Amino acid sequence: MTGPGPLGPDGVGRVRGWATRAAATARAAHLTTAYRADRTEVVRNPHLTAEWARHTVHSPALLSAVRRAIGPDIAVENTFLVIKWPGLPFEVPWHQDGINDRIVLDPRRSVAAWLALTDADESTGCLHVFPGSQRRGYLAYDAEPDTGAVRGRALGIAGVEPSEARPLPSQAGDGCLMDVRLVHGSDSNTGGDVRIGLNIRFVAPGGCTVRDGSDPSLYPVSGTGW
Ligand SMILES: O=C(O)CCC(=O)C(=O)O
Questions:
Q1: Domain definitions of the chain by residue range
Q2: What's the CATH architecture for 12-134+164-216?
Q3: Which ligand 1 atom is nearest residue 186's CA?
Q4: In terms of C-beta density within 10 A (0-12 exposed, 13-18 middle, 19 or more buried), how is residue 160 classed?
Q5: C-alpha 149 to ligand 1 mean position (Å)
Q6: Mean pLDDT for each consecutive 10-residue tract of the chain (226 residues)?
């Protein structure tokens, strides 16, 4: 799946103000309190269980950026919350959001969002992206390790040159959209504060293929095509 994507030559765009800085920071404080005891690192599909996450995937600023990318009919295919605790090793290896052992996303009819609930910089483990890597299409990836899925997908991508990666720092309440073929990952948090981000995969009708032939389980958020 090579060819142009919805986000221009770099394959990445900024999202500003999906929440106010104060609201994002307050939510991060609640999550930190809720998950600190057992140092939870990944929460899967919080938009199906938590009101704040349901609210977040409907954010007007976010949805208007997603509409510009993939049109008016939008559903959420998947979300996951990533919490990086200071001093706890947790790297997210290079990967592409649009392909895994279960699904393949059509890059013209899908887009990934990453939203900062806290500030994220190089010391706290912000995203690193390879601008333009989406032009290479989907790359071979290592089998997903059977780690009990504690840390989400952990894919090694063959043939990416680490020196081409660029940090993508973000402030609480901002974030980015990524072409689902964009190679990205993040380092461990070596700073002093917790770092929290929400990853959302959005699809337009027909944008998600489940490898076993079953229907994708989608959560519509906009438009009438569902
Ligand atoms: O939050 C992170 O550090 C990485 C998240 C990510 O890359 C993903 O969920 O696809």
A1: 12-134+164-216
A2: Sandwich (2.60)
A3: 3
A4: middle
A5: 14
A6: 85 98 98 97 97 98 97 97 96 90 95 98 96 90 52 53 88 98 94 98 97 95 89
